[in-house]
Design goal:
By secondary structure, the chain is mostly helical. The radius of gyration is 15 Å and the shape is globular. The protein is 84% helix and 0% strand. The chain has 5 helices and no strands. α3 runs antiparallel to α4 and α4 packs antiparallel against α5.
Length: 100
């Protein structure tokens, strides 16, 4: 399973940035426009709230591992801050699988 989690880390990094990078090149780091477009419809708000709750769950899980002395789980926090849940969750599972 570790190979699957690692592959999902790669996919979870590439797919979001494949969509975000062209938008960023076109609009720059326009936070106001980003938030406006991300919350333009009820379905977009649903998706973002789903991602937000998932992000909090992964950060809490990683925080518990960090508090237990597993320093590698800071990578999960870094992945969440730079990519998001699509990297953070499979990375967390990859690290957990390796420590088992």
């Amino acid at each position: 399973m570790r190979r699957v989690w690692l592959a999902l880390c790669v996919v979870g990094t590439i797919l979001p940035y494949a969509v975000f990078a062209p938008w960023l090149i076109k609009h720059g780091l326009d936070i106001q426009l980003l938030l406006q477009q991300a919350s333009q419809s009820a379905i977009a708000a649903f998706a973002w709230l789903d991602v937000l709750v998932s992000a909090v769950v992964v950060l809490v899980l990683a925080g518990r591992q960090i508090a237990a002395g597993k320093r590698t789980h800071w990578l999960v926090v870094a992945g969440m801050c730079t990519v998001g849940v699509s990297l953070g969750l499979p990375l967390y599972l990859y690290l957990i699988e390796g420590s088992g």
